[in-house]
Prior knowledge:
Radius of gyration: 18 Å
Strand content: 15-25%
Number of helices: 6
Helix content: 25-40%
Largest sheet: 7 strands, mixed
Oligomer: single chain
Mean pLDDT: 91
Amino acid sequence: MIAIVPARGGSKGLVGKNVLPLAGKPLIHYTLECAIASNAISRVIVTTDSEEIANAARQIKGVEVPFLRPPELASDTAQAADVYLHAADWLRHNEKTFDAEVCGLLPTAPLRAPEDVDACIDLYMERSAHVVLGVSLAKPASWQQTMDGNGQLRPIPQIANSIDNRQSFGNAVAPNGSVYVLNVDALRATRTYFGARTFGYLMPADRSIDIDGEDDLRIADALLKAKDRS
Length: 230
């Protein structure tokens, strides 16, 4: 299966985060090395609008950056589905290559392991899925509240207000941004990850860090250093 690694250059929350140093190397290198090490991945392609990211990606042997993503697919409002479909269509039109499914791996999940990728792809095949997502345990959505400038909490519309014990909700999980195994045609038709043929692969918290801000970067750095010491 082809791995598609989407890495735009215009991150606002953490500027330049895809190539920020993490424990001595650019953040994106962790995802690219994981993809190369996966037994189920046959090819690793980075889709980016940034020459800096492209050059960093090419430092990993076996990684390809065959095109630069058009600007309209690198904006704050660009949809992830369009990024994956653009990559699949580029391969089809320019290389006459078409894979019915792709594996999306975000650079912001540096602690996933190759076995997580392989397990997600195995699950996709076993279940004849349209989508398999890496997930981790989460607090129930019904616990979520909005908070105004005075600190007052209010229920979020469309979400039932409940203070039931977490256990009463069963296995509440949320996608952790680490692995997306996608049926290309189903994604094109539905433009959503969630449907009757969507399955989740449960991952531990220490492999589910999603880098969104400085705190996440520090946590990931500490976990990587702890892993090196063990």
